[in-house]
Design brief:
- The chain is α/β, with parallel strands linked by helices.
- It is built from 30 helices and 23 strands.
- The protein is elongated, with a radius of gyration of 29 Å.
- Helix 10 runs antiparallel to helix 11 and helix 10 crosses helix 12.
- The strands form 5 sheets. Strands 4, 5, 6, 7, 8, 9 and 10 form a 7-stranded mixed sheet that branches.
Length: 730
């Protein structure tokens, strides 16, 4: 526990270790010449607890303090806890139990981040581990290397450290030693065991001027030189070169925003040399494949600094750079919603719009809020443990539950989803006519799907049984959210749809979206890509995407942000194609999005289309259609293009299955992600079944999810079949 000038926080940090559920530990606080009372505090605790073994030494910096603890440690595993932070009561037990199951040299958890002006939030590892995997290969996973240098969320086996001679770099001050440690450790491992459970509380301290001094800016390059020497010495540089330079590219932002004058120019010259070295071995900002959230940061923050270093623009601090026209993304919004949806649902009763439904209970709610506020103020002034605050909030929630017991259903009934029946009545008739075989077909459709998908399949068919009087005329029905046909996520979205839509509009504010609808289907769920495991979406880089049924570009724009080499958008209707092309041109997206005025079908030829919809911008293939359009098959198109295909999106008004027939060779060759709309049952009632059956019969190992994509419109529209292979995208 390296300790220097942290007296206001030290006791909390020390107690969080003392009170660990794993009792057989030694605790080594290192007083690195701290001028405050930290040394006396640790001695006082050591007098009462023999597990505490303080070290006192002259100030030598963060690295020397860590090394003093490493040299003194005798335990089987070692953890590092910084003394302005604190840890969860079961951190050591959680990580030690996981480590011992496989005798892992390193096991690492996630953490809570505490910043002034906002509540704590979880820095998780789903973008690395996915939903199931707990192992990561440092050499192969760029994001494990560039992720926050949280060396303090891990356990390290002591014999691994000693056998490899690992020590903390002893540069003056806390200047990038953790980055050096991270690269050194990872370069000696084949895999790291990751536990996506927050075990550590990281307190972000206010940055003083010293954190941005020319000395520390220079230390960045000195330490990276040490890292490269270490990697080359151990024969690991070739495996880690992407992560090595990606880490430096991201670090450019911090110092470039805080240095001035000669120090800034010196930094720029060294950064330019670093970029030149990377370029010589084929590494550049454009060539690296980042997770969507990271990529959004790269384009907004790193790109302007990169261009400034290479003298393409003036410094971002002094120039008025034009807004970025690419990579603006609502992905982080969705990730945050997914992570915290349970907490948000608990707290939604406090939202202003809910107060409208709770006026009879307002005075009681006010009293409870006042009580919770008093708890918070008392804790803030007295510096009590965070657990006490949690107890107060839990108490408040229990009282709210009592108050809401009688009012909950009434509130939920006032929130609802819609069903607009026309032209879905035809499918209702189909279901009734085939009632004897329907249950078997539905069970086959659900076969192999996860629980959430099966829930949505059952709900889709249940809707038609709930509406026995559906006709060919348009009718609108209301379904309150209190019904059991909605998932928690759907209730959250529908209760907060205006807020979420506003966030999506904000996320795309740097583009001219005046002719592009902002909706959940494309901007929130991103055409279904959000359901695809990250280990597959990271393979999109260097491949092309086929956007079949492009309409006005509302799907091409969010797809383009995933790093595809090109997104080819197919739209047959002349009027709509003109809008698509205009949206691409006015947003400067022509480099990534390639429009094609044609339809996609089983084979090359022509199709007749009807204009449908109130605005006339929808289309439907029909023998009675007045608009004749050229069509191509996906196989023919891809053979001429000779580019690997990473994704095929099919939303072509009931022609999805014929288009799949015309894409067999492409699917077999590349195993791309398939996003197939299956709700056009008024055109082809069988398509909801036959699309999955056709893909299954290819015997390529595809997995399937079924998702309602547009809850703000109607409950029978925008259902999609998301299909992917674990070994897909070749």
């Amino acid at each position: 526990m390296p300790t220097y000038r942290v007296e206001p926080y030290f006791e909390q940090a020390l107690l969080s270790v003392v009170d660990q559920t794993l009792r057989d530990i030694e605790i080594i606080p290192v007083d690195d010449g701290s001028p405050d009372n930290c040394g006396a505090i640790m001695d006082a605790y050591a007098a009462k607890d023999p597990r505490i073994k303080p070290i006192h030494q002259p100030n030598g910096g963060y690295g020397k303090a860590i090394n003093a603890g490493l040299y003194a440690a005798t335990g089987e595993y070692i953890a590092i806890v910084e003394t302005d932070d604190w840890i969860e009561p079961d951190m050591l037990e959680t990580l030690y139990s996981a480590a011992k199951k496989g005798d892992h040299p390193i096991v690492k958890g996630s953490f809570y981040k505490h910043e002034a002006g906002r509540g704590p939030y979880v820095c998780g590892m789903k973008h690395i581990t996915g939903e199931r995997e707990e192992y990561a290969c440092p050499a192969d996973d760029l994001h494990l290397v560039i992720f926050e240098s949280s060396i303090w969320t891990a356990l390290y086996r002591r014999d691994f450290i000693e056998m490899n001679g690992l020590v903390m770099l002893e540069t003056t001050g806390a200047a990038y030693q953790d980055v050096v440690w991270k690269f050194s450790v990872y370069s000696l491992l084949d895999t790291v065991l990751l536990i996506d459970k927050p075990v550590y509380h990281y307190r972000v301290m206010a940055q003083g001027s010293s954190s941005a001094s020319p000395t520390k800016a220079n230390a960045m390059f000195v330490n990276y030189k040490f890292i490269r020497d270490f990697l080359e010495k151990h024969g690991s540089f070739e495996r880690f070169k992407d992560g090595y330079y990606a880490h430096q590219f991201l670090d450019l932002v911090f110092h470039s925003k805080r240095l001035k004058g000669e120090a800034l120019e010196e930094f720029r010259n060294k950064a330019r040399t670093m970029i030149s070295e990377a370029t010589e071995i084929g590494i550049s900002l454009d060539g690296l494949r980042f997770h969507p959230d990271v990529n959004d940061y790269v384009q907004r923050e790193v790109r302007p600094v990169w261009d400034w270093v290479l003298e393409k623009t003036t410094h971002p601090q002094t120039s008025s750079l034009p807004p970025l026209t690419y990579e603006a993304s609502p992905t982080s919004l969705r990730f945050k919603v997914k992570r915290r949806i349970k907490d948000v649902l608990i707290r939604w009763v406090r939202k202003p719009f809910f107060a409208l439904f709770l006026k009879p209970l307002a005075h009681q709610l006010d009293a409870i809020s006042w009580e919770a506020g008093n708890h918070a103020k008392a804790l803030a002034s007295q510096g009590e443990a965070l657990a006490s605050l949690h107890n107060a909030v839990d108490k408040t929630h229990r009282k709210l539950d009592v108050l809401l017991a009688g009012a909950g259903k009434e509130m939920a009934d006032r929130l609802y989803a819609k069903v607009i029946t026309h032209p879905s009545g035809q499918f209702a008739y189909y279901l009734r006519a085939n009632r004897d075989i329907l249950s078997k077909r539905i069970e086959r459709l659900k076969s192999g799907m996860d629980e959430a998908s099966c829930f949505q399949v059952d709900r889709y068919f249940k809707l038609f049984s709930l509406l026995p009087q559906m006709t060919k005329t348009e009718e609108t029905y209301i379904f309150p959210l209190s019904m059991d046909i909605f998932s928690d996520e759907e209730r959250f979205i529908l209760a907060n749809k205006e807020v979420l839509l506003a966030k999506m509009r904000e996320a795309y504010a740097n583009l001219d979206m005046s002719e592009v609808p902002i909706g959940f289907n494309n901007m929130y769920f991103e055409c279904g890509v959000q359901l695809v495991p990250y280990r597959l979406t990271e393979k999109f880089a260097g491949t092309i995407a086929l956007d079949c049924g492009a309409w006005v570009g509302d799907s091409a724009i969010p797809l383009a942000r995933y790093g595809f080499k090109e997104v080819h958008s197919f739209e047959p209707i002349p009027e709509t194609y003109t809008i698509l092309k205009r949206n691409i041109e006015k947003n400067n997206l022509g480099k990534w999005i390639k429009p094609h005025q044609c339809a996609v079908d089983a084979e090359r030829g022509t199709l007749n289309f009807l204009n449908i919809g109130e605005d006339g911008q929808g289309s439907l293939a029909s023998d009675n259609g007045a608009v004749k359009c050229h069509c191509v098959s996906i196989d023919d198109f891809c053979k001429k293009l000779e580019q690997p295909v990473g994704l095929i999106k099919l939303d072509i008004e009931g022609r999805e299955v014929p288009a799949l027939h015309g894409a067999v060779d492409t699917i077999k060759k590349y195993k791309p992600v398939l996003l197939v709309s299956v709700y056009h049952t008024w055109v082809d009632p069988e398509q909801i079944f036959t699309a999955k059956e056709f893909i299954e019969n290819l015997n390529l190992g595809y997995e399937f999810q079924f998702k309602w994509m547009q809850p703000e419109i109607s409950m029978i529209y925008e259902y999609i079949l998301v299909c992917y292979c674990k070994d897909g995208i070749k």
